[in-house]
Records
---
Amino acid sequence: MSDSNQQRLGGFMTSVSTTQMKSFYEDMVTARVYEERLQEEYMEGKTPGFDISAGQIPGELHLAAGQEAAAVGVCHHLRDEDTVTAPHRPHHIAIAKGVDLKRMTAEIFGRETGLSSGKGGHMHLFDPDVNFACSGIIAEGVPPAVGAGLTAQKRNEDSVGVAFLGEGAISQGAFLESLNFASVHDMPVVFIIEDNDWAISMPKERVADSQDGSRRADGFDMPGIRVDQDDVLAVSEAAREAVGRARDGNGPTVIEVQVHRRMGHFMGDPETYRSEADQEAHRRRDSIERLAADLRSHGVDDETLAEIRERAESRVEEAIEWAKDQPKPDPEDAYDDMWVNPPSGVTDTEPNFDLAGGDD
Amino acid sequence: MAQQQRQTVERTRTMSDAMVEAIATEMRENEEVFYMGEDVADYGGIFDSTEGLLEEFGRDRIMDVPISETSYIGAAVGAAQEGMRPIAELMFVDFFGVAMDQIYNQMAKNTYMSGGAVNVPMVLTAAVGGTYNDAAQHSQTLYGTFAHVPGMKVVVPSTAYDAKGLMHNAIRDDDPVAYMFHKRLMGIGWLPAPDGPKTAVPETEYTIPFGSADVKREGDDVTVVTLGLHVHRALDAAERLAEEGIDVEVIDLRSLVPLDEETIRESVDKTGRLVAVDEDYQSFGVTGEVITRVVEDDPGSVEAVERVAIPDIPIPYARPMENEVVPDSEDIQEAIRATEP
C-alpha cells in the first residue's frame, strides 16, 4: 500500500467515532466467540479418533476465527437491502450482515427451525431478510452477487451487491468472468478477497501469479486496493469508498484484505502442511486485540471492553442454547421445498382452443 | 374470451415467432422480466429466439452479455433471488459445460437448500439438437443431463402452439425452468423446419401446464413416447405405418420435469407396446427413464418395448454418419415393427 493511502487511512481513523469502533468491536468479538464456541460444540461426540459424521453438528465446519476485520469493516457500510454472498467460511460475514443468529445456529445444528429448515447446513445459509447467502464451491457465489448489482441497476435503486471470496478463489473463472461482466456494465458491486494466506494447504505463492489479489482488477479497468493490515479501521476506510462508489453508480471495486487463519481449514484438519511458526504468527496477529488497543487509546476502559465481551458471549450462548432446544426435522421433511409453485407451474389446466388444422 | 366462443384459430406462426410473442407479452406486463444472452440484442438470437425484441424493449431489457456463461447465468440466479424474472439464454445447450456449476448447484438447488427461504424464478433457454452437421459440440440435446438433477423444471416444445403456452408458464413460474427449443423446429430461414411445428397460434396469451403430455396422434396398436423434433419424425413414421395397418399413438411429453407418467401408462394400457424415442444419448437418459416408469409401475402392462436414441457415441460431422446416428422416421418405423407380436 502506498504512503498516500496510509495517510488517508490515518486521517480516516480519527474520523471514526468511538461509538462506531465499539460497534465494530462487538461484532468482531461476537464472531470470534461464536467460532470458538462452535468448535467446542462441534468436537463434542466426535472424539476419540475424530469421526466427522458423528456429534451434534455433522459434516464439515469451516471456522473463520481471525477473519473478522474483513467482514465487519465491510458490512458496517451495508444496509439490509444490500446483498452479500459469502463462501464456505461464512459465519463472521453472516454475523456482520445481521443474519438471525439463532436461526443460523439452528441450521448449523441441523434443526427444523434453522434458516434452511435443516436442508442447507453451515455452507448454505440463506437469510432473505438481510439479503445474505453463502455457498460451498469456490467463487460460485460471485456471479449471483453481480446479479444483485444488476438488479439494483435495472430497478434504479442505490443498493449494492458484495461478493466475499478467499484468496484461493482469485484464479477461479467465476470470479474473473464476474469482474468483467460487472465492469462492462459499471455495476454496483464490491468484490472482497479475504486473504488468509492459505487455500486449504496451498500457500498463495504456490498458486497465484500476483501476491496482491486486488491487482486482478487491473485487467478489468476497475479500482483495486489491497488492505495490507488486518485492521478493521483500514478495511472500513477502503470499503467506505468502494461501497460509496458502487452506490453512486460509479462501478465496481476489488478489495483484498489481509486476514489470518487461526484454525484449520476445517475442524479436524491436522494442518500437517503448516509450520508451527506460521500457526503461531497467525494467532499473534489478532485484529480484535488491535482494535481493543485502539479503543483504549480513545479512552475506552477495560471495564467497558469486558462488558461488550460479556454481551457478545451471552448472545452467542443464547443462540446455541436456543438452537439445541429446537426440534430435529422429520425424515419426511426431506421431500419438502423442491418447488415453490406446483410442479405444473402457474396452471394445471389445459387451454381450450379450436386450432385450424388441429394440433396434429 | 375467444376460446369460450370456440372460434377456430386460423393464425399460424413459426415456433420462434410464438416464443417471442410470449416473451414480449410477459415483458410488457411485467417490467421485472428481462432477457440476456449472447447475440440476443442486435442479432435477435442466433436461432431467432429474440427476433425483433430489441426495437421494442431496448438494450437494458434485451441485453447482450460477455461470452461468459458462468457470470451471466450466475447473475441471473442472483437477480432471480432478488425477485426479478430473468430469462438467460445458452446459445447452444452444448455450452452448458462452462456454466454447469451455476446451473446444477445454484439455479437448481438454492430453493431446496434454503428450505424455500429463497426461490429462483428464472428461465434458462437453450437451443438443442442436430440434423445439420454441426458435429459433436453443437448438436446435442442433453435432455437427460438437464432432467437428471432435481430442482429444474425442463420443458421441450415441439410446436408453435405449445412453445407459446409453455413459455408463458415458464416465465410466470416462481421456480427455475430450463426451456429447451430445437433449432430445427424454430422456422429459421437458413435451417428449414419440417411441416408440423408451424401451427395455429392464438393471439391471446395462454399457459400450458408442465407435466401434461399431449397425444399428438391417437392410435390403438403401439405407443410412441417422444419429444422435440422427434415428435414430427414419429408422426411421419406413424403415417407411413398406417399404410401397413399399424395404428400408432404418438405422445409428446412436452416436459421432462415433471414427467406425465399417467398419459404414458394410459396409452400403454391400451396398446401394450411401447417405443421410447429421443435425440439424446441412449444410456442413462430419457428413453430408459420412460420405459422404467411404465415397467416398475406394472410390469405386466407392456408386452414389448423398444427404444430409439443416439447410440452412445459423440455426434459425428459428415452427413452419412450423422444421419446414421440421429434417429429418423425409418429408425422409428423399424422399432415399431419390432414390437409386433
---
Amino acid sequence: MSKGKITLKILIFLIASDLLETFTQFCFKKSAVPQNELFIQNPADAMLFITNILGSGFLWIGLASVILTFVIWSTILSKIDLSVAVPIASFSYILVPLVSIIFLGEKMSLLDWAGISFIIAGVIFVASSTEKETAAA
Amino acid sequence: MNVIFIILLIVTTSFLDTLNQLLLKSSINILNLKVSNLRNILSMILRLALFPRVWLGFCFCTLSLFIWLFVLSKADLNFAFSADSVHYIFIALSSRLILKEKVGFRRWAGTALIIIGISLITWSNR
C-alpha cells in the first residue's frame, strides 16, 4: 500500500515537524530547569512540582507545539508511508542534541554521538521494516 | 542525581506512552476507518473520544508528561531525549505480544541497535 511520492509540500511539513519536535523539547526543558533544586519525597512535593511547572509559560508554549506537531504529522501520514516518514523524522535525534549544546550549554562527548548514531541507525532499520513485513503478512 | 534512577524514570515514561499507543491503536483498529485528509482525521479524533480506554490512555499520557518534566529538571536534554528512544523497544515487544503484529528480523535488528545506542549514552553519562 504505497502512498504518493514526497512532494515539496510534504518535505516542508517533515522539516517543520522535526523543528517543532525539537522546539517542544527545548520549551519543556526550559520549563523544568527552575525546578532543578526540588526533590520529590512526598505527595506534597509532587503537587508543588506540578503547580510550579504549570505556572511556566514555556510549558504551555511546548504543549501548543505538541498539538501543532500532531496535526502536521497526521497530515504527513495521510500522504506518505510511515516507513518513509519516520527515518526523516528521526533527524530530531540530531537536532535536539545540537539545540542542547547551542542554546542550553550542555556538553556532549564522542561516546554520546556514537550512541546517537546507533539509535538513528536503529530507528531507520525499524521504520524501513514496516512495508515489507506488512506486505508479507 | 543517580543516572540509573533517571533511566528508570525515562523507561517509566516510555512504558506509559506505549500503553497509551496500545490503547489508541486498538481503538483505531475497532473503528477501522479510511483516513485520507485532515477532515477525516478530525472526525476520527471525535469518534475516538467516545472510547473510555482512550481517556485512560490520555491519563497515562499526562502522568508520563509530568514524569518527563521531572526528568528534564534533573538531567541534560540531549541525554534524556536520546534515552527516550527506549520506547521503540517497548513498541516492538508489545506490537508482537499484544497486538499480534508480525515483527521481522529488520525490526529486531533495529531494536538491538537502539539498545546499543542507549547503553553507550548511559555509559558516557554515568
